[in-house]
Amino acid sequence: MQILIVGGTKFIGPPVVRRLVAMGHDVTIFHRGKTKAELPDRVRQIVGDRAQLPEFRSEFEKLAPHVVLDTILYSNKDAQLTMDTFKGIAKRVVAISSMDVYRAYGIMLGLESGSIEPVPLTEASDLRSAFYPFKNFPVTPLEGASADYEKIFVEQVIMKDGALPGTIVRLPMIYGEGDPLNRFLPYLKRMDDNRPAIVLEEGIAQWRGPWGYVENVAAAIALAVTNDRAIGRIYHIAEPENPSELERVSKIGKIAGWDGKVMAISREKLPEGWNIPFNTAQHWSVDSSRIRQELGYHEVVPPDEAIQKTIDWTRSRASQEISPFAAPGLLDYATEDAILSQL
Q1: What is the Rg, in whole angstroms, of the alpha carbon atoms belonging to the chain?
Q2: CA distance linking residue 307 with residue 230, whole number of Å
Q3: pLDDT tens for each residue of 96-137
């Protein structure tokens, strides 16, 4: 197949490209040329900004891609530009979406009111009615996303056009080599500093959410791109298990060789600044059986190996900057010691 990827140079992009090339497909990436990525030599590159997509239409017509994978769709405007550009050229568009489309995510953030959503979420679970989840965030967790970020509107545009079929893949929280949020660092640093315990607020300790290792997520995306059965379908990409945060951090510690203990502490025993401003009674766990049953997806990297690879990458990084989205107080050892002394 001839496959065109819009984006493709950051985090999940290169693993997806490598996977598609290994499957024998011809891959072209359209990107701004600002990020140097390790890609196979046979990958063709077209340099341009996504806002300029219509200006490259003649070149896309010569390329004649069977499928366009757009990895950087953040708004309905982005999605409409993609559909308008490739209508009459491509046979299908695959759009990268997120698990944040669900009402459960809105309840978790306090954007939605009402009863807790049942989990695990399926592809048919209720979506948010409160739009633009990042509009009040001082910093958005996705580079390039702004206050008009809304994957719900992206999905509606991609799936409504009968002339150009679409596929939606909803991604989990992704860890692994290249993770821009460096999700393992806040915990791994404490483990490598030989902390005797890691304190988690009780609600976050029991909270369950969707996770995926970057190479496994890439393998799932590649299947959705290359399989015609995916036409008109929406898929969850996530690990089959949805461990609690306590279970997840404990597993990281075990593989990292840490002898400490992860402890759940009630909110009343924690300083005010350590309280998580989310409704942790609303879990975010998902059912990923559809893509497994319909497209034959399975993890290509086993869970323990995925964690070990992420630990090795995290330890090798020169920058040890903690993401602004990490739980508060994670490296406040003095306060943590005071909490532990009272137990």
Answers
A1: 21
A2: 29
A3: 999 999 999 999 999 999 999 999 999 999 999 999 988 876
CB 99 within 8 A of CB 236: yes
C-alpha span between 179 and 24 (Å, rounded):
27
pTM: 0.95
Peptide bond into 120 cis (omega under 30): yes
220: helix, strand or coil: helix
- The full DSSP string for 172-191 is -EEESTT-TT-TTHHHHHHH
Q: Which two tokens stand for residue 209?
A: 């959410």
Paired sense of beta strands 26-31 and 44-47, if any: parallel
Please give the distance of CA 242 from its chain centroid, rounded to a whole number.
Answer: 15
Q: How confident is the model over 204-240, as pLDDT tens digits?
A: 999 999 999 999 999 999 999 999 999 999 999 999 9
Distance CA 340, CA 47 (A): 54
Q: Which residue has the tokens 């010569």?
A: 62
Write out pLDDT tens, residues 284-325: 999 999 999 999 999 999 999 999 999 999 999 866 766 655
Which of 258, 278, 256, 259 lies closest to 327, judged by CA? Answer: 278
C-alpha span between 117 and 150 (Å, rounded): 20
**Using the 8-state DSSP alphabet, how is residue 281 labeled?**
T
